[in-house]
């Protein structure tokens, strides 16, 4: 199911709500928006709240959904004929597709040639629009260039640079900031009422303002998973590469865990750099550490640009760290 059973309220993101509200009230409401921000901060949730408001034909601040409203129940069950959601699909074994296909996009364009089922707005949400393959992106572009009447496109992405410039130029970009710790706690306790506060304090630094990242960590074992990661890196600092490589090979193919490991490595390097710089900014140890930070950052950036294998990237980075810090 694309819409989760428990839909949290929108917490934070006041700026995007106000911008949408003003655009709607001005009667110059763009037909396509790109919802841009890091993964897991609530962009898809925001798109659902906006869709609900437009189906009610009334936007009020803050955005709210009445989960008992028959309208929302139709949206949630897939029974609202004017709400179309595109995302990566899963096969029968739960394996997630690597891209959103052109066939998926073409299936919606044929629906958009028909009259709206409920006589109001028709809304297309593409969750993870950066996953469109080339043919799918071109098919979407054609629809954006000739939008059907009273149809809104909400393109959700955590990687704006991967979208065609021609798609970007036809959309209004809506930026979403990472949540503050206080906002994170509100969202996470709404989703996990039994989450212990001491566990939350340990998990928050790994979240980078993204409740979705914490939810993913909790699904993998939460605190136990994080402790295993910290232990693996402790072995690296003690001179043993084997344990951390095993951890990276087990979990590194998961995009979200890959990002958590990358953030952990870079944060650890920055912490080490600050510690050395406090003693002597120009010392050989500080300059060596700065070069290592540059090298690791470049490895991650080049890997992302070339879409290289995540496990191989982590192996290279970890081997570099092992050699330079031994």
TrEMBL record:
Q: Which Pfam families match?
A: DNA_pol3_delta2 (PF13177)
Entries under InterPro entries matching the protein: DNA_Rep/Repair_Clamp_Loader, P-loop_NTPase
Name of the protein described by the UniProt record: DNA polymerase III subunit delta
Organism annotation? Candidatus Bealeia paramacronuclearis
Species lineage, top-down?
Answer: Bacteria, Pseudomonadati, Pseudomonadota, Alphaproteobacteria, Holosporales
